[in-house]
Amino acid sequence: MPWTKIYGSRTEFEKALKDTPGLRGITYKEAIREATAQLLASDKSVFVIGEGVDDSGGVFGTTKGLQEEFGKERVMDSPLAENGVTGVCVGAAAAGMKPILVHMRVDFLPISLDQIVNHAAKWNYMFGGTVNVPLVIRSIIGRGWGSAAQHSQSLQAMFMNIPGLRVIMPATPYDAKGLLIAASRDGNPVIMIEHRWLYDHVGHVPEEMYEVPLGKASVRRSGKDVTIVAVSHMAHEAMQAAEALAAEGIDAEVIDLRTLKPMDSSTVIESVKKTGRLIVADTGWKECAVGAEVIAKVAEAGVSLKAPFMRVNLPEAPTPASPALEKAYYPGKDDIIEAARKTAGHGERKA
Amino acid sequence: MKEILSKYGLNTLTKKILLDLYRSMLRIRMFEEKIVELYPEQEMKCPVHLCIGQEAIAAGVCAHLFKNDYVFSNHRGHGHCLAKGAAMAPLMAEFYGKETGCSSGKGGSMHIIDAANGILGTSAIVGGGIPMGVGAALASSMRDEERVTVVFFGDGAFDEGAFYESFNFASLKKLPVVFVCENNFYATNSHQSARQSGCRISESAASFDSRGHCVDGNDVLAVYKAAQEAVGLGRKGGGPSLIEAKTYRWKGHVGPEEDWTKGCRPKEELDYWKEQCPIKRFSNLLLEKGALTTEEMEQAKSAINAELTEAVEFAKASPYPHASRLLEDVYHKAGK
Q: Is residue A212 a part of any domain in this protein?
């Protein structure tokens, strides 16, 4: 499938487009905008709310022009009251609407934890399934340009710990559109975490509405020596790492988790059964997080290994501002390559 | 009686409404007193937050609501749900943890629901239900429905940021919300004066360009009148209002006991407020003015008793949920 492919650059994508005429390419941010517009057009209960969703930039382009198209009542700016407005969305959802709430930064989610954790996540269970909360909360990881400690966090793991929530982190334009549509129709509170660096990525995206099922990982590259499980922006780093590793004779399989909760552990387990080696590359911190959970699931499945598990994460510190420190802070393809070399050094590799 | 009613500006109030108000308060009181009676059996294995002494607020406000109007409430929510029209049996069964409970035994006394009557679930996080209520009002407003949403909360919730964020939002969008603060002066055991600088809750409405009323929450006619204006304003698109109703909770924060014995509050204070009992005040007035007869009141009482007896029997006889239901309903399933 052309849309499951991750393109390293726009040039690479444009070349692919020439080889496969008839397929349409749009950016990640355009894909989110298109999904949102189609949801608004097809379902009266959908509305969009968030700080600045109506401003000229339109949340990095993801909501640009939607207010002009669908009106102020359905695409609305909001007061700077993250918890209150999240609660408003939880209540609207309980009353039958399907809000898409945009928190411009992941860092604003902790302000709204009461409504996310104590209310949205609990409502369906606490009342025996009487009233559900079909709510999508979009949020964005800001990285770089000195964004520093309060505008760059990757807090997905916090939400993975809460039964009743779903957590998605699309890495491609195709998935951004399909997962957002599926999330809006899911009937449960879904935390969608986007990465600012993905917004200009281009990929094949069908024009019609479609769903990417929640809870399904995607194998981005098949390989036999080592499994690299990655999320969001790290899926792109993992693909680049895999290409470099191939030149060294290490054949990596790259799995993009796409949904963190519920996690598609069977795809990961099957892969590790084949490769015997596992690296998990996440955009966030290490402890009690994505890598820890993936590794635990593989360990619980009793898969026999050729090498110890490895994790590629942020170092154990808040994000620094200085470009020199930022450079030292963020892991990338080189760290994945390094980890792969280490794991490949253990045990026999398949011929 | 007419003279009295005209003092409240309620000249057109019918006998039926007077009887309904009396019945609604009594129904809450008898329901709560039954819990007090049964709680020591230790079969009701969940915390109960009783509203004995505060019944006039739920009764006076909900008297103005239609079935499809929304009500959001808190951990002390039995009275609100009953006044909004919830049947006793599913509530009682919920307190007993039974599968026939309104929340299938998953919620307990703090998490009750009656969606058919517009109660979309009660939150036990102080202030937590307030933004949700505003959200429900946003939903009804977007759908052009004529619903009003009433959000009940205590003076403790006035400490919470959620109140201010929600009130601002409701006012900004001119949503049909009535915020009803039941000011019983205590958040658990902390007095309002230890938590709030102004202690003038109703005046905060002015900051949000809305109307605030402060009423005697133990005077059901005063509550009824304030709610009539607030609900009426919401219904005709006039935006939100705030009613602060001053009252007193007779029992401790949680459980069936009075708490002066533990030194939480002075007994004299409770004695004073018991004299201000909203049901006694109203029934005395009705009898004195000949608006209702003792027989009519007794009839109401025996009808409530019958419902209550049946509810307790239903709750006790109902089965517990099977353990296999433990993991059900964590997520909504499409098509359900």
A: no
Task: Say whether the ipTM exceeds 0.95.
Answer: yes
pLDDT for the residue numbered B336: 53
Nearest CA to A120 among A108, A105, A106, A109? A109
Q: How close, in Å, is residue A238 to chain B by CA atoms?
A: 32
- The verdict on A172 and A258 lying in the same domain is no
Q: Are B28 and B63 in contact (CB under 8 A)?
A: no
Q: B2-321 — its CATH code?
A: 3.40.50.970
Q: Which residues pair with A259 in a beta bridge?
A: A168
Give the integer Cα–Cα distance in Å for B56 and B59: 5
Taking only the tens place, the pLDDT of each residue in B153-179 is 999 999 999 999 999 999 999 999 999
B219-237 per-position pLDDT tens digit: 999 999 999 999 999 999 9
pLDDT surpasses 90 at A32: yes
Q: Are residues A162 and A17 in the same domain?
A: yes
Nearest CA in chain B to A112: B162
Q: What average pLDDT does this structure show over A118-124?
A: 98
Annotated active-site residue A195? The verdict is no
The predicted pLDDT at position B310 comes to 98
Of the pLDDT bands very low, low, confident and very high (cuts 50, 70, 90), residue A13 is confident
- A158 and A181, same structural domain? yes
Q: What ranges do the domains of chain B cover?
A: 2-321
H helices present in chain A, as ranges: 10-19, 28-42, 66-70, 82-94, 113, 121-126, 156-160, 173-186, 233-247, 265-275, 290-300, 323-329, 333-344
pTM of the model: 0.96
Q: For residue A348, which phi and psi values (nearest 5 degrees)?
A: -80, 140
Strand A25-27, strand A202-204: pairing: antiparallel
| A200 and A178 inside one domain | yes
A260 & A194 share domain = no
The whole-angstrom separation of Cα A111 and Cα A115 is 9
Q: Which domain holds residue A238?
A: 218-342
| Alpha-carbon gap: A111 to the closest alpha carbon of chain B (Å) | 11
What CATH number is given to the structural domain containing A33? 3.40.50.970
- pLDDT > 90: what percent of chain A? 91
List C-alpha distances in Å: B75 to A209, B48, B78, B80: 42, 8, 8, 11
Interface of A with B in 33-62 (CB under 8 A): 47
The predicted pLDDT at position B335 comes to 61
The minimal CB distance from B162 to the residues A87, A89, A187 is found for A87
Residue A11 confidence (pLDDT) above 90:
no
